[in-house]
Design brief:
alpha/beta, five-stranded mixed sheet, elongated, multifunctional enzyme, 60s Ribosomal Protein L30, Chain: A, Spore Coat Polysaccharide Biosynthesis Protein SpsA, Chain A, isoprene biosynthesis, 30% helix, 400 residues, single chain, 19 strands
């Protein structure tokens, strides 16, 4: 059989309630987050990105439409997935998925549990190679390595079960589509609902099922601890989304009674000229924060042409930028401001400035830095014509 003689459709079973995976209020396990995304999103992505993947059917519970939509809203190619509703049992849900897939050009089918998000493309390729070798029924499995014991109702070990030839079954269990659908139809007609997987239905129907090497990573998330471990695994392997933004601002000095820097008023024989209170430090830091999420600059949000901001405290601008960052899923980790001025002296006010930044941003004092330097009497700063500020903000964003 060559690549052009068959097309592999996918049925992902996601209609279960997952009673063993935690409290009911936590929701079905296939929609629980691991690595910042729902389990089903990880599973679907494995098949959507597999180069041999044909039409994909996801079988969901009728009550889970909103959950499914939310789980896949940011998933590329999710629009090509066919959605159908499952039944009261997994067996019935698979049957509904097979019926939906029968309306496509698929000749073969992989039936996979949504709660197995770590299925690898290598495993899928091995199944596809089995189809190409002429096998119509394929079961990924791994040999049993533990010693098996048979116990009795009395709580005692009755015998040791030889493990030679024993395997743990996995999914995707894969078949010629017409054959496995016919087997499911026969089982449904006879009201047989006692099959534990699709391979057992195939065996009952007399269809040969060949073993394919499974994967130890292709685990099924069954209980809450499984989900917690999957989350730890993905979180540990995911690079953190750390972003750094820079901002620069300068304002002219003119005769006056003082300047406001980092929200602190410092008496001086000059003042800063600007539409607002001209706090160059907070303006630069506002731009730095906005840069971490691509939200423009301070002029986009508070244009100088808008008279409502005339004389406004720049604290308003910084609070707004911090709010935007948090709405984008960011956590502000550090704020650093460098002031460039010949006068006034910043050193005596540095602690108050850091405390003000800590208050406005809602972060600890040790994450707020204020530094100052002169311009060695060079340029407009050296001539005391203006004050400049450079700011850097570090933000960590959570995954989608």
């Amino acid at each position: 059989m060559d690549d052009d003689s068959f097309r592999i459709g996918i049925v992902i079973v996601a209609a279960g309630r997952g009673e063993r995976a935690g409290a009911p209020e936590d929701g079905p396990k296939q929609y629980r987050p691991i690595g910042g995304r729902p389990v089903i999103a990880h599973t679907l992505e494995r098949f959507l990105t597999w180069h041999r993947s044909g039409p994909i059917v996801v079988v969901i519970h009728p009550d889970d439409e909103a959950l499914y939509a939310a789980a896949t809203v940011n998933l590329p190619q999710a629009a090509r997935v066919i959605i159908t509703f499952g039944g009261e049992t997994r067996q019935r849900s698979v049957y509904e998925g097979l019926r939906a897939l029968s309306g496509t050009d698929a000749t073969h089918v992989m039936i996979h549990d949504a709660a197995r998000p770590f299925v690898e493309h290598d495993l899928l390729d091995r199944v596809a190679e089995g189809f190409m070798a002429g096998h119509d029924g394929l079961l990924p499995a791994i040999p049993i390595s533990d010693t098996l014991k048979r116990g009795g109702s009395d709580g005692l070990v009755h015998e040791t079960v030889p493990r030679a030839g024993l395997y743990a079954a996995q999914t995707p269990q894969s078949f010629l589509l017409s054959e496995i659908r016919t087997a499911h139809e026969k089982a449904a007609a006879l009201r047989r609902e006692d099959f534990t997987d699709d391979a057992s239905i195939a065996e009952w129907a007399g269809l040969p099922v060949h073993l394919v090497e499974g994967s130890v990573d292709n685990i099924k998330l069954t209980v809450k601890r499984d989900i917690d471990m999957a989350d730890e695994r993905l979180t540990a392997s995911t690079l953190p989304d750390v972003r750094t933004g820079n901002g620069y601002d300068v304002h002219q000095l003119e005769p006056g009674d003082g300047v406001t820097l980092c929200g602190i008023f410092i008496p001086h024989d000059q003042k800063l000229s600007g539409h607002s209170d001209a706090d160059v430090a907070l303006h630069a830091l506002t731009d730095a924060l906005l840069a971490t999420c691509g939200a423009g600059d301070i002029g986009d949000h508070f244009p100088p042409s808008d008279m409502q901001w005339k004389g406004a405290a720049s604290k308003i601008f910084l609070e707004h930028a911090a709010k935007i960052v948090r709405e984008h899923g960011g956590t502000i980790m550090n704020a650093d401001v460098s002031l460039i001025a010949e006068a006034p002296k910043v050193g005596p006010h540095r602690q108050a400035m850091r405390e003000k930044l800590s208050e406005i941003l809602g972060i600890s004092l040790d994450r707020c830095s204020v530094k100052a330097t002169t311009n060695e009497k060079i340029g407009f700063v050296g001539r005391r014509e203006g004050i400049a500020a450079i700011a850097t903000a570090t933000v960590v964003f959570r995954g989608d």
